Amino acid sequence: MTRKLFGTDGIRGTANQHPMTAEIAMKVGMAAGHYFVRGNHRHRVVIGKDTRLSGYMIEPALVAGFTAMGMDVLLVGPMPTPAVAMLTHSMRCDLGVMISASHNPFGDNGIKLFGPDGFKLPDDVELKLEELIVSDLSDKFVSPDKLGRARRLEDASGRYVEFAKQTFPANLRLDGLKIVVDCANGASYKVAPEVLWELGADVVPIGVSPNGFNINKDCGSTSTATLSEQVVTHGADIGIALDGDADRLIICDEKGHVVDGDQIMGLVTTHLHRRGLLKGGGLVATVMSNMGLEKYLEAEGLTLERTQVGDRYVVERMRKDGFNVGGEQSGHIVLGDYATTGDGLVAALQVLAVIVEQGKPTSDVCNLFTPFPQVLKNVRYGDRFPLEETGVKDAITDGENRLKGVGRVLIRKSGTEPLIRVMAEGQDPVLVEQVVDDIVAAVKGVA
Questions:
Q1: Which of 133, 136, 342, 424 could bridge across to 247 with cysteines, CB 3.0–4.6 Å?
Q2: Does the annotation mark 54 as catalytic?
Q3: Which residues contact 234 (CB under 8 A, 6 or more apart)?
Q4: What tens digit of pLDDT does each residue of 148-190 get?
Q5: Which segments within 183-245 are labelled E, that is strand?
Q6: DSSP per residue over 169-199, as a string?
Q7: pLDDT (tens digit, 9 = 90+) per residue, 250-291?
Q8: All residues at 6 or more sequence positions from 418 whose CB lies less than 8 Å from its CB, including other chains
Q9: Catalytic residue among 54, 90, 100, 102
């Protein structure tokens, strides 16, 4: 059975349009409530969200679905995705839900589900939930005396703040460091500056004035120009950019230069390796990570294991083969010793710990290798799926042949938007650009 609602990161779409409607949200609550109500204990689910206006529509719809199935609801309000995952497990909840479309614009929204262990649900469970969502569950409703209750968890942010601080080495402090932190007007707008300040940093917060419409708008990990500018203006030591739900991290150094997820993963991996704390003999990343990272790790005697795109697949591989570091070039950094999903703030604290220990500028610490020239372009498509067209297939094959032995081509369909992502990398930047442009032209011709 092919999944129709769940993509690579939960259910996502334009708010108030299928599938991101109040009706579907209520059915998700009903389906997940029915599926996860097992045993005789009082069942409960924790629900968090980011700062999008549509969260006010989706949250109560989910609550209605869960309570109809007899599940109590703990509402935590705006809270990072990794905080919801942590709370789900630490509070012995049966399920966790995050209402967010991550790095997407405010008009989109999404629903991410976490199992009682705090990990995102596997494909087979999502398929079962889809079957339940489209079925009639009215005969599964509980009697009036067994309806669930909803209440707000007042100390949720404090719980996460303390959790995040405990991932920073106890013998270190951030005293003397000036840090610009961009919270993308999203879920971390309160907790991220607070964690950094309590650890001793001089904090310059930006992107901390959400209004329901400005999440990820010209700010955050997908738009770092303002962060870079503010770092230079304030003479800061480092800039930290999170995305709308704070599961991604991008850094810029004291010069305002951006450091992507590949460099961050390389730094954390080798730092743990030298301290004897690395598990698995390397790093798990996706097919999008740069070949420069792979060569750097090889020189350190470490491996780069690749998965398909999506941090959930990274986590599955980490758990299967015993790795404790994984992530994506886009900034999802998964540190298995601390979290069950990507946590931008916790990853930033590990980078800051290395900077404090080495006593060197961020530019020296975080720029470990020279990336291979890489070009990524997106093409939006309509009803026709371009990758099935003969002309597009021929263009892809031609590009692969031109880069054979000196680079690679990666073409994939986005799991969250109607986009074809065309990526190529290699030693010759001109050739890489030409290959991508030729494939993009072929896709546009039929898109």
A1: 342
A2: no
A3: 178, 180, 204
A4: 999 999 999 999 999 999 999 999 999 999 999 999 999 999 9
A5: 202-206, 238-242
A6: -TT---TT-EEEEE-TTSTTTTHHHHHHHHT
A7: 999 999 999 999 999 999 999 999 999 999 999 999 999 999
A8: 380, 381, 382
A9: 102
Spatial separation of the C-alpha atoms in residues 229 and 220, rounded to whole Å:
13
The encoded tokens of residue 421 equal 């992502």
Type of residue found at 340: T
Which of 122-127's residues contact partners 24+ apart within 8 Å by CB, and which partners? 122/316, 123/3, 125/35, 126/3, 126/6, 127/1, 127/3, 127/6
Alpha-carbon separation of residue 257 from 62, 228, 372 (angstroms): 42, 7, 17
What phi and psi values does residue 206 have, to the nearest 5 degrees?
-135, 165
User: Residues 324, 304, 400, 409: what is their CA dihedral angle, to the nearest 10 degrees?
Assistant: 40
- Specify whether the CB–CB gap between 52 and 215 falls below 8 A: yes
Average pLDDT of the chain is: 95
> Cα dihedral sign for 182, 192, 150, 126?
positive
Distance CA 276, CA 386 (A): 47
Q: What is the pLDDT of residue 1?
A: 56
Kind and range of the H or E run holding 111: strand 108-114
Distance CA 229, CA 257 (A): 10
Q: How is residue 152 written in tokens?
A: 């707000």
Low-confidence ranges of the chain (pLDDT < 70): 1-2, 416
Q: What number of other Cβ atoms are within 10 A of residue 316's Cβ?
A: 18
